[in-house]
Automatic annotation (TrEMBL):
SUPFAM superfamilies per UniProt: Formin homology 2 domain (FH2 domain)
Name of the protein: Dynamin central domain, formin, FH2 domain-containing protein
Organism listed in the record: Helianthus annuus
Domain FH2 residues, every copy: 1-167
One Pfam family, short name: FH2
Entry superkingdom: Eukaryota
Family: Belongs to the formin-like family. Class-II subfamily.
């Protein structure tokens, strides 16, 4: 495939590349190595973005719990919010969400103007929406899938040969 001259006349780098040409499945091994090098950077990127989202959720939970014993709580479970709209009063006309809104409007009307407090969630929402593309998660998954397919395609024939030689 390549060089047929004297190896001693080549430089160190050229000799290294010449040896690299003799390594089986070099391309797939280099892809694995490249993915491994990029993995920590991608995880770091994901971690930063998820920390932004987590911080926003904590801030929202603390705002909702402000003035209570749980004022410094980490947050709340998001799956509990729809339950407020599903829980009906005895007359079946008012939900717990309606009741909470009415009490807040009567007692703490300034709390109902929470939309201005949600501006801190905007960076988190953007980070969440752009997370996969920004960190290259789809590309990483595609690369890993290609590597897996190539490994399967190289290992399966060997296994079949070994199994048939055992029979």
């Amino acid at each position: 495939m390549g060089y047929k001259g004297e190896k001693d006349k080549l430089g160190k780098h050229e000799q290294s590349f010449l040896e690299l040409m003799n390594v089986p499945r070099t391309e797939s091994k280099l892809r694995v190595f490249s993915s491994r090098l990029q993995f920590n950077a991608q995880v770091s990127c994901l971690r930063k973005s998820l920390n932004i989202v987590n911080s926003a959720v904590e801030q929202l939970g603390n705002a909702l719990n402000q003035g209570t014993a749980r004022g410094s709580a980490i947050g709340f479970r998001l799956d509990s919010l729809p339950k407020l709209a599903d829980t009906l009063a005895r007359n079946n006309r008012m939900t717990l969400m309606h009741y909470i809104s009415k009490v807040l409007a009567d007692k703490l009307p300034e709390v109902l103007d929470f939309s201005k407090d949600l501006s801190s969630l905007e960076p988190a929402a953007k980070a969440y929406n752009d997370l996969a593309d920004y960190c290259g998660v789809p590309q990483l998954a595609k690369k890993l899938n290609q590597i897996l397919v190539q490994l399967i395609n190289t290992v399966l024939p060997r296994l079949k040969t070994r199994i048939s030689s055992l029979n």
